[in-house]
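The record is given unchanged here:
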Amino acid sequence: MLETSARLLRLLSLLQARRDWPGAALAERLHVSERTVRRDVERLRDLGYPVNATRGTDGGYRLGAGTVMPPLLLDDDEAVAVAVGLRTSAGGGVAGIEETSVRALAKLEQVLPSRLRYRVNALQTYTEPVPADRPGPTVDPGVLTALAAACRDQERLRFDYRTHDGSASVRIVEPYRLVSWGRRWYLVAWDVDRQDWRTFRADRVEPRTPTGPRFPPRDPPEGGAAAYVAQGVSAAAWRYRSRVLVHASAEVVTERINPAVGVVEALDGHTCVLHTGADSLNTIAVYLGLLDLDFEVTEPPELVDHMRRLTARYARSTAADDGPPSPASTA
């Protein structure tokens, strides 16, 4: 009986780990026959877990949605991660989720073993978040879960989207990842109509149901979803844009900048172009100074003038009064 109970817990853990499981794959993981898997699935159903089955050569099992929330299996690290995540979400960022997070956290901490409760309390007591410079937009948690589910299930998504100028359109995408940057959430997806990768602000998305057909996975955007968002979102928000010729290889420059700073374009083995920008000319000047490399600025004209003023200012800062000549120098 103990072996059967342990196997049921392992089966439940596997079903919770991913959406679909072929019966043969479950039997291999559990080191049992497919007949035993079928019996164990029936036992889980008797315990109230809605395990759905599909027939045929591609048939398998899926943990479905039931009328009540079944118990979840969490290891120590997962339990701590959930508790920390709930405490973080209680601070805002997702509309209407603060109170719900507090209630869920109270239930979780009530059953945490003392060793795990100690770890969670230590993180809460000895960490302090830096307040945001300005309040960010809030996102409906239902929208986030719908987007995440479409990414997980690889299902096409149709949604109404509002751009920064208020114009609306209907988009059809193959969702890839959700990216959290500061207090904003972004969806990285393949735009079916435009045949290219695009970034969408989650707080401007209104999903339409039902979702579309399944799609095969694509190669992700270069650098991954987070880097793609960092590059695209930063560039879209820049007030000033600059094209800078750097006298170093693209590999060297890439190692010295954050992806949010700009995009590096290789010219040859010794030079490259840095496409960068910022809300202020001073910020661009700081980026270029931190490169610690020789470079040439040709545009925009405002940046060229600003760099000349900085050059003169730095030159004046080192032109100290030498005072009267020393006796040795007049001998």
Notes: The first helix runs from residue 2 to 17. The radius of gyration is 28 Å. The longest strand covers residues 168-181. The chain has a mean pLDDT of 81.
